[in-house]
Write a sequence for this structure.
């Protein structure tokens, strides 16, 4: 009985102990699962839950014929977790430095485990460093290969299991990548001032700040919002080897790709312009030379180029001066090309007609206490000849008849002193003074392109307005926007700004401008074999610190053809050319070569077919 | 235990084990499908990347500068046609045509001549 009672007591004690044990386990479980539930589940989630950002692709830029001008290629940003490396960072640096094209010392410095202060002010191990951006995908594959075969000692079998496990962790976890993209310009410097360039900048997204490609200049900047898409993301879980468990995906938001932009630019015409500018650059060695080709009827810009230029694939290698699109950013006195404004205004007002005669004072005229000179000693000239001979005195007399108020109004109507609205950043306004600020002499100087500042684009648009029966157009660079599936999202239409002068006055002005390209005009060398050309030369002294030093000129030519049904209007402008400084010596030959090559390339119908061709066909040749 | 009871227990065990095996098979299928999706996504991305790479290469090959340089390098002696190499023809104009039709025809004829 006594033994039985003792056994029962022991059994009770044992049961109590077991119950206490179970109670302890239950208490611990309660503590972990209920009391610390939120804290621990958040900690666990951090290990397996991941949000993978799906980068959107920046849209391409193509020319009018669909030729690729700017695109993006996927690259990697190589990152590392130094906390995994421990003391092995030097071996890793030596192994991957040649592949990343970095020095092993620099790489080792980045990979060395360090402590940082986190956002909560605590000192923690740094688990993220960027080793290199813009690494090619193929190169990343080589790096992963190198890491997989990385040997810390010749024979690892003799090393302790714990150390071997650490090395395995280094091979699989020390390096990682982030998706990135690099902007590529397959044609190099072609149309570089129009395209601009792109770089990296931080953008706020749904997943926090994200480094994205964004435009920095030119069309890349102007079209940034449409070229850039919207990043997508995947909220998912990963296994112990950081591989995604697709079946555990929660959110899967596809990225919205950027739109492709089709320009009005024609790469063929652009190439013609750039090669001709290069030839002219070598001949005249100016500070800069610029040119643009436009369709006057629509305002479509087919080409725009400046020298010096730059390669948008590596914009940082060039001076800021090389990256400037001088055709829209530089403003200067336009010189004689500006005479088209006063004379077309006087024609439009009916104050003069082409056959009215003005005496040009044999080359020297005193007005408002100052003398005004012509290049030659002209006597009486018709208005038509005032243009063809580019007489300053004749133009000033016509402008005086027009009066300051009306001249100012026409200058504004032609678009001077205001932006043309071209789709490019950094366009200059030019400078047109209000008539209240004019001095008595101004009415004789402004009409000949002095005391007024214009951009080459403003002058080109004004000349195009005359070619286009007096209608000023808004310059067009963007033709359409197309989505990833080839659907046209937006199609740009030509935009008339205003009717500046009546069609009759514009036709008279064209008639006068045709005589400039006659044998008696200042631009005789611009004449083309199969087309009638109209245009105007300009040679403006360059003011430096308020004075006009000798030998420093802006020289230009703006012309269009066929004169009576214009297809192209071309402007060429030199800044301080050497070996000839008149527009007729510098701009005119370049204009002619660009015009002839472009006409052939674009198959512009000829106006004056050669007679021998008709002789071959047996049909009568046109008069 | 009566035979009926044994049958019921056996059926219950079979059902429970069947459900368990079915659940694991289904999970396995989901996992395999996940792996397939991941592989296809990777392949799609790879093909897109390859397509873009070919597009870039084509653009480089077709760039006007590259074409001109290659023609010079290979001494192909090709370039824009000289005026002496162009024969411009005009279609005969029927007398019955209106002036407007004649203008249109003349314009079209010239446009065709201009292509070179």
């Amino acid at each position: 009985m006594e033994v039985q009672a003792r056994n029962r007591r022991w059994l009770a004690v044992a049961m109590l102990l077991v119950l206490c044990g179970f109670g302890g386990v239950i208490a611990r479980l309660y503590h972990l699962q209920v009391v610390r539930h939120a804290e621990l589940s958040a900690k666990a989630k951090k290990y397996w839950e991941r949000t993978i950002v799906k980068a959107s692709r920046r849209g391409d830029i193509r020319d009018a014929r669909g030729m690729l001008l700017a695109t993006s290629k996927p690259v990697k940003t190589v990152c590392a977790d130094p906390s995994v490396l421990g003391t092995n960072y030097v071996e890793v640096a030596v192994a991957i430095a040649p592949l990343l094209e970095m020095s092993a010392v620099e790489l080792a410095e980045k990979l060395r485990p360090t402590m940082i202060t986190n956002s909560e002010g605590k000192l923690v191990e740094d688990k993220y460093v960027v080793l290199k951006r813009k690494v090619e995908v193929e190169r990343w594959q080589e790096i992963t290969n190198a890491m997989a075969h990385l040997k810390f000692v010749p024979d690892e079998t003799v090393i302790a299991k714990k150390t071997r496990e650490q090395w395995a962790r280094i091979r699989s976890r020390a390096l990682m990548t982030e998706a990135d993209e690099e902007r590529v310009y397959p044609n190099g410097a072609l149309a570089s001032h129009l395209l601009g360039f792109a770089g990296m900048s931080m953008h706020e997204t749904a997943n926090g700040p994200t480094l994205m490609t964004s435009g920095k200049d030119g069309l890349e900047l102007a079209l940034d919002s449409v070229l850039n898409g919207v990043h997508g993301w995947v909220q998912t879980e990963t296994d112990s080897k950081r591989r995604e468990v697709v079946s555990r995906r929660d959110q899967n938001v596809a990225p919205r790709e950027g739109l492709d932009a089709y320009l009005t630019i024609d790469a063929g015409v652009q190439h013609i312009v750039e090669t001709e500018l290069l030839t002219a650059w070598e001949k005249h060695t100016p500070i800069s030379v610029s040119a643009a080709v436009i369709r006057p009827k629509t305002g479509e810009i087919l080409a725009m180029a400046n020298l010096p230029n730059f390669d948008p694939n590596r914009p940082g290698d060039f001076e800021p001066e090389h990256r400037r699109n001088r055709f829209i950013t530089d403003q200067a006195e336009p010189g004689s090309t500006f005479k088209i404004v006063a004379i077309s205004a006087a024609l439009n007002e009916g104050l003069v007609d082409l056959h009215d005669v003005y005496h040009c004072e044999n080359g020297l005229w005193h007005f408002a206490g100052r003398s005004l000179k012509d290049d030659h000693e002209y006597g009486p000239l018709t208005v038509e000849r005032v243009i063809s001979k580019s007489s300053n005195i004749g133009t000033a007399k016509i402008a005086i008849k027009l009066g300051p108020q009306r001249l100012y109004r026409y200058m504004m109507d032609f678009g001077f002193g205001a932006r043309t609205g071209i789709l490019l950043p950094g366009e200059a306004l030019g400078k047109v003074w209000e008539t209240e600020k004019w001095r008595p002499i101004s009415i004789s100087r402004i009409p000949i392109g002095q005391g007024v500042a214009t951009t080459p684009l403003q002058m080109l648009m004004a000349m195009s307005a005359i070619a286009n029966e007096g209608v000023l157009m808004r310059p067009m660079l963007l033709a359409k926007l197309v989505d990833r599936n080839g659907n046209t999202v937006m199609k740009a239409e030509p935009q008339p700004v205003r009717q500046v002068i009546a069609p009759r006055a514009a036709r008279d002005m064209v008639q006068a401008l045709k005589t400039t390209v006659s044998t008696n005009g200042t631009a005789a060398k611009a004449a083309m074999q199969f087309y009638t050309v109209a245009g105007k030369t300009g040679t403006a002294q360059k003011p430096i610190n308020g004075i006009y030093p000798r030998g420093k000129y802006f020289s230009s030519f703006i012309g269009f053809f066929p004169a009576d049904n214009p297809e192209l209007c071309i402007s060429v402008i030199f800044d301080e050319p050497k070996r000839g400084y008149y527009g007729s010596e510098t701009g005119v030959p370049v204009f002619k070569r660009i015009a002839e090559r472009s006409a052939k390339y674009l198959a512009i119908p000829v106006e004056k077919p050669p007679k021998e061709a008709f002789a071959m066909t047996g049909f009568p040749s046109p008069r | 235990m009566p035979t009926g009871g044994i049958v019921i227990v056996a059926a219950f065990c079979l059902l429970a084990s069947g459900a368990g095996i079915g659940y694991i098979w289904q999970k396995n299928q989901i996992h395999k499908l996940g792996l397939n999706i991941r592989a296809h996504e990777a392949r799609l991305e790879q093909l897109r990347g390859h397509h873009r790479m070919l597009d870039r290469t084509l653009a480089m090959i077709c760039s006007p500068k590259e074409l001109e340089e290659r023609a010079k390098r290979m001494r192909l002696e090709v370039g824009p046609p000289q005026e002496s190499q162009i024969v411009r023809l005009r279609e005969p104009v029927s007398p019955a045509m209106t002036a407007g039709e004649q203008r249109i025809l003349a314009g079209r004829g010239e446009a065709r001549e201009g292509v070179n």
Remarks:
- Confidence is low (pLDDT under 50) at residues 612-623 of chain A.
- Chain A has 22 helices and 26 strands.
- Chain A touches chain B at residues 67-69, 71-74, 137, 184, 186-188, 190, 244-247, 267-268, 270-271, 275, 529, 597, 599-601, 603-606, 609-610, 613-614, 616-617, 619, 622 (CB under 8 Å).
- The two ends of chain A are 145 Å apart (CA to CA).
